[in-house]
Automatic annotation (TrEMBL):
The keyword DNA damage does not apply. It comes from Oryzias latipes (Japanese rice fish). Belongs to the cation transport ATPase (P-type) (TC 3.A.3) family. Type IV subfamily. The keyword Glycosyltransferase does not apply. The active site is at D402. It is an enzyme of class 7 (translocase). Keywords: ATP-binding, Cell membrane, Endoplasmic reticulum, Endosome, Lipid transport, Magnesium, Membrane, Metal-binding, Nucleotide-binding, Phosphoprotein, Translocase, Transmembrane, Transmembrane helix, Transport. One of its GO terms (molecular function) is magnesium ion binding. This is Phospholipid-transporting ATPase. Residues 31-85 form the P-type ATPase N-terminal domain.
Amino acid sequence: MQCAGEENWVDSRTVYIGHKEPPPGADAFIQQRFPDNRVVSSKYTFWNFIPKNMFEQFRRVANFYFLIIFLVQLIIDTPTSPVTSGLPLFFVIIVTAIKQGYEDWLRHKADKAVNQCPVSVIQRGKKIKKESFRITVGDVVFVKEDETFACDLILLSSSRDDGTCFVTTASLDGESSHKTYYAVQDTKAFRTEEEVDSIHATIECEQPQPDLYKFVGRINIYMDNEAVARPLGSENVLLRGATLKNTEFIYAVAIYTGMETKMALNYQSKSQKRSAVEKSMNSYLVVYLCILISKALINTVLKYIWQADPNKDEPWYNERTEAQRQRHILIRAFTDFLAFMVLFNYIIPVSMYVTVEMQKFLGSYFIMWDDDMYDEELGEGAVVNTSDLNEELGQVEYVFTDKTGTLTENNMEFIECCVDGHVYVPDAICNGQVLSGAAAMDMIDTSPGPGGREREELFFRALCLCHTVQVKEEETVDGIKHGIHQGKSASFYISSSPDEVALVEGMKKLGFTYLRLKDGQMEILNREDEIERFELLEVLSFDSVRRRMSVIVRAASGDIFLFCKGADSSILPRVISGKVDEVKARVEHNAVEGLRTLCVAYRPLSPEQHQEVCRLLSGAKLALQDRDKRLSEAYELVEKDLILLGATAVEDRLQEQAADTIESLHKAGMKVWVLTGDKMETAAATCYASRLFRRNTQILELTTKRVEEQNLHDVLFDLSRTVLRHHGSMTRDNCSSLSNDCTDYGLIIDGATLSAVMRPPQEDLNSGSYKEIFLEICRNCSAVLCCRMAPLQKAQIVKMIKASKEHPITLAIGDGANDVSMILEAHVGIGIMGKEGRQAVRNSDYAIPKFKHLKKMLLVHGHYYYIRISELVQYFFYKNVCFIFPQFLYQFFCGFSQQPLYDTAYLTLYNISFTSLPILVYSLMEQHINMDILKKDPSLYKDVAKNSLLRWPTFIYWTVLGVYNAIVMFFGTYFLFDNTTFTSNGQMFGNWTFGTLVFTVLVFTVTFKLVLDTHYWTWINHFVIWGSLVFFVLFSLLWGGIIWPFLNYQRMYYVFMQMLSSGPAWLSIILLITASLLPDVVKKVIWRALWPTITERIQSADKLYKGQLSEFTPLASLHAPSKAGGRRRGSENQSNPRRSAAFSKKLMFTRWQRKPDYCTFTPLLRFVDGHSPHHNAYGGAEPETCV
């Protein structure tokens, strides 16, 4: 018997092809149990939906709290009906459950469609159709062109003679390029059902694991009762979700099914990211919970002090029953405490969570609908994968960006190659004439000489052979298939690496055309139009650790060559001869120019050496344990004693507006780090081109080369001293972000040194913690470049900055699978829809077509979202303080009897209907500053940085304002009606009229408070704000105007009409609303006049110019004026010549040594009447003036 789950402890699994037992002499036949091919991506089933969903929802603190309150209201005699807290709670729960249930139903539907898809399976030599979920491990599957693989398969044979097939893995890693996969050598000739059914073999392979690019296994084929073992690698595995292309059909065997396929193992959910605003909300919630408990406690204590007097304890009209008298005082006190908790519980706004969810969900559509972020070329706009982090876009302090494909286009173009110091440029221009590349334009010498000619051709052949490029042999034009020889336009190169395509196309321009790989023979068309054939013996594929790839080929003459290409750092140390200095000089020159460089070398192999190489490689490939390690050791032994041929240079152009975007991010106060796998010189050149490093940036190097000369400890302390000495005397803020006079620092670090810095300190060494010193240096650098980075190191850097003492908000942006770990680690992850596949896009929180769209996403959308949600959160707490504090005060006037001040309907609908829609619309529509101004002046982003609008002083101000408003409403109503509680017919006002009057003032006050805070008015704002007030009045008239048969009380009957029939009531409503709002208005006016923020200056200027301020360029914020004496410039009352309306408004900025000052000017500056521009009202340096 096998225990459930035991197979998980087995290192490998044995798969019997076609479920056939091995021959008697072979291993014992042990049939393992594997899951079926059913895929489940849904979260719930029909039976567990309600309990599981309820459990998840009540894990939220606010929901659980309201459930407890609701249960308390049901169990004990409380002053308010259970409906008042039950209705809002169940509304929230039901809406959320419907949303999640619908999303899960869609997942069920998608799963069903996938699981019931028909698949062809070979059984007893015949093809039969099976539903996808019925496939089991060991089934032989038949797949036709353009069909998708139903599970993970090992390729047995294909319709192509060489046993290869082409596959696209777009749904797995997003790479749309065609990849080549290879059939098992011994089975590739079997092409009919009967032949395939006759295969007798077993496969031993590792247990399923999620790495898409890794597979270790071997196949044992039984021929005449003897087993032949062949290695299996990732090149033999066809993954579920990939699609067959350019191949008529294939036969393959299922090895992993259902939830064990690599695709399913990659379904793992991302960790939940929480925004800074959500954390602030939770802190405020705790404060308000403390306020609630203290209110209930105070009232409970005061109630028992009040009831110490027997006359007050049991008045004649409210005598207690015998059972109540018998109850212990502690039980009574606890019951009263709970009753007060229920009475005041509305101070905790449950509806705030729903409103915030709706605001985030609906707000995310504004990003997706933004036409400025739509890319015509891709035909796609921005995508929001997580709406929970919208406001976090307005809080970013560090931006970590990839280089290739993010800052650059990842569109490679072959620029030149250098062979033994001779430079060849395709289509070079000489004396005004374009020479074709075939002329091999020599830029250094006139001729390479006879020996050089041979080396040159060997170099070109090496580049034509050392790659994994596929040729699309036939292109259909008007329904007719054209072969590759019918003109060069018909050939079509496909590769998973754009560099390789650029190199092969570059060789084509220089006269050597790669034609195809057929029957293990690589074919090249040389300059004389002769076809050369090379037998491909081995491919030593590229990996990011070795940073090189090699091929072993046999020429027609019988000579065997190993051709190797890779990064200079991995090729040059293995070279024993060749013109190393000349090539190295050219590589460094090209790297400084920002070109991507590769070195090319070769090694002739004797037949004995070749046999030794084959033995080494086949031994490593057959290993089931540590195959990667053994392969890399074998590669190290093979790729040595190389002869250097030359180097290539490929250009990867900067993306459009990349430099402008980085400059804007710098001005917005963000620090930009570039994390790349490229070499230092290339990356540095890109950083200069993209203005990450400016002309005056002083570069500090923390590289392997420098650490070898000095030890790491000394280098770090040197850099630390340099940076801190400068920053001690002059902070970066002292110098204008527009000025180039200020020295700033840029740091360059490579992967190897970073590993040394990140290593935990050794106790026996006096190393201390290098990480802290490194962080201190980085903090004082305006830009950091990390080159030669492994994907995991990118994530480590982000994690290190996140964990530093300031806990800054980080953003990571990248386009490739190697950026996924960094994107998942950062607070906000952004994927770019690039050429390196869609893995980054799928794992990101947001996706944008180009790097330039990051500018609007952060400076405009991020800024707006943060402003909106911070107002929403503060306003919700404020309106609930205004709502509940009068209820607290009322207890002092009703003998702490838990009498509610407001009617049940008002308690229930206050947060749901009367005050919820205006703030929701505000939080979706508000634009406190024009969008164009935010884009043109990035420094405004600093205004909202570091969660500045949700700090404790602001929170306390809103709370105090709420308490003040509540006191004014309650005592204002109390004193105004102290003596004049008579209507015109002599009737007195009762307690429900009193409460309704307070509630009416409350609803109008909190709504008008929002009106005062709104800067951007649309018809929707008007409709919702005034509509909410009208709805309140109509509801009150209806609620009090009819005797409702389902109510057991009619206390509100005619109350609202009677209140409105009183003249003093109208007067008091107007007076109390004015008195409540006046201090806030006065505070705003004084603050704006005396200490205006940059935002307020811009708002004033924008109003002055009727919203046209953004039309003037250059534009930046109206920063605080200098304290220098003299009148304000532009204030002279000078009469100017009349101008046309178009020129009546201008904006001018003046750049000083200190912060820029922006002033609005009268249209014509009086520099034309002979006055020197030096005589300005400010003292100090001469300004540069732009109008």
